[in-house]
Amino acid sequence: MNTGDLLKTAVQNTFRSKLRTSLTVVAIFIGAFTLTITSAIGAGISDYIDSQLGAIGAEGVLTVNKAPDTETAAEEGPNRYDPDRATADDPFPGAPAGPGGFGAGALTVDDIEAIESTHGVTSVEPTVFVSADFITADGSDKYEISLNPVSAAIVPDLAAGAPLTNSDQNEILLPDEYLDALGFADAEDAVGATVTIGATDAVGEQHDVDVAIVGVQNTSLLPLGASINENLTDALVEVQQTGRTVDAPVGYLSAVAHLERDATDDQITSIKEDLADQGFLAQTTADQIGAFQTVISGIIGVLNAFAVIALIAAGFGIVNTLLMSVQERTREIGLMKAMGMGGGRVFGLFSSEAVFIGFLGSAIGAAAAVLAGTAISTALATSLLSGLPGLQIMLFEPSAIITVILVVMGIAFLAGTLPARRAAQQNPIDALRYE
Amino acid sequence: MNSPVLEATDIHKSYGSGSGRFDALKGVSLAVRAGESVAIVGKSGSGKSTLMHILALLDQPDDGAVLVGGEDAATLRGRAVNQLRNADFGFVFQQFFLVPNATVLDNVVLPLKIAGVSGRERRERGMAALRALELDDKAKNRATNLSGGQKQRVVIARALVNNPKVIFADEPTGNLDTATGQVVEDILFTLNREQGITLIIVTHDTELAERCDRQIYLRDGRETDAPAPPNLHGHGSEGAAA
């Protein structure tokens, strides 16, 4: 029997006992449906994280902190005070904790120079915390706003407009939740408009700074605040220093080190090691969000495992169905063997039936999952998850769907080997005598 | 024409072991020449079906040899044996063994399908075989919707479709009434006469056996020279060893 005929016969045989086949297909359907949905959720969420946390990091940017003191960190409980440890005073009391936290101490001006002189680093921008009191547009009320201290390390997820530039103009990327409040019709409308940011100086007097909106940023998973360019940072620092009579010790929570644009992963790794030797902790954006993604993929992994368990249960359904089928068709198998069909071909016939049942269940399951998932996903995007624009909770990738179908067909094949082996080993005479 | 197509020498076959051991064949020899029609006659339990299975290479003897066209079947590999059965042998069974939900044509072309013949040629040769048995108008029918005689004609068409050298028929008329049985017998002997197909018929029906060129009588696993008297039919050792 040639392979084409074998497959065709297997498909025809599958439909001989329609009820039994359909029940088995339903079992596989459930497993395949679940697996498709869970893998789509996994893909949807990681795609969202990628777009949120910066198309994996501004290329060639490292966030540098003082490395945590390993000596004291090993101790449980609060760290003992160590007067020998050189730390600048906490530069901005009350500022929100940025990446790395405050525990490790601040970077001094000397540290910044050390980082800058590290081989491979082209420039360093210390992270300066600036705060704004309010933001307002023409005729709108005043609203509180927080500003992102590490704008340079993030590639923003923009709804409209363009990323920040290093021009000598004050620029801001407006978070989209401010659109309505500031009286803009939509994201496009806001781009190019000018807003006013208010900041308080050292003696408590408020100053207004005019800022151009160059882009509108989708709401992010992490509340980083509005991204601003270097020029605006400097302007706000200047405002905040106004009236300050005593020079506070200068220190920075962290710094953004720029590397060569085309730095390879190996080069980045060696720069990180260099910096680590000097007592700094340098992380790419990918490093920083890595832990977050590990948690997400762990959860998705558990969900997938449940779906696979369902599929394995369905696999036993296939074993059962085919064993009954082999039993019923004992004489037919005997006849085919008497007519010269080899055991290998008989095995092929029955395992193809198993694989076809697996294909039916998984293809229908995957198709139903895509339809249902797309509908649910769209509904959620406009209701429950409307606060997270750009989040498509389920992302169906063709490669993932094909993988699911292939995995199910693989399980079906394994399930089919037992009945198929039994059929292949049947003695034609016993089979023909069988009543 | 006189060279033997099938030759069996001193065939022994037993089933089970110990006290449950049953010797089905205790040293049977025979030679079947091409174009002959041979009846293997015996009662139930005489070993006639076992002998046919061994001749048809469906089973191996415990002792003794089967020569097919002068070649020892024991030296053939599994694939060659399958090929031989597929190309040279046709089978007609008492129980028909038709695939119930397939069409008559699909049933008939099963040997060709196993042989890997292309779909078009299968259809042509299948229809030709059905035409020879005047069943071409039933080609699209389900096999289950036929009468007993029609079913057995389909089985003969299936046995014929690969142009075999030998047709093995195990009680070909056992499930048919006398008139229909007569028709099926006529078909088989016509094939034997006109196409030179060797017939090996296993039966307990002495009338059918008489129509063959030669009869081999089996009793308790041995060949007996004396034909069993017709008046003992249905008595004696019947069922004793089955």
Automatic annotation (TrEMBL), chain A:
Membrane spanning residue stretches: 21-45, 302-326, 347-380, 400-418
Topological category with respect to the lipid bilayer: Multi-pass membrane protein
Gene Ontology molecular function: transmembrane transporter activity
UniProt subcellular location: Cell membrane
Primary site of residence: membrane
Pfam family membership, one: FtsX
Name this polypeptide is given: FtsX-like permease family protein
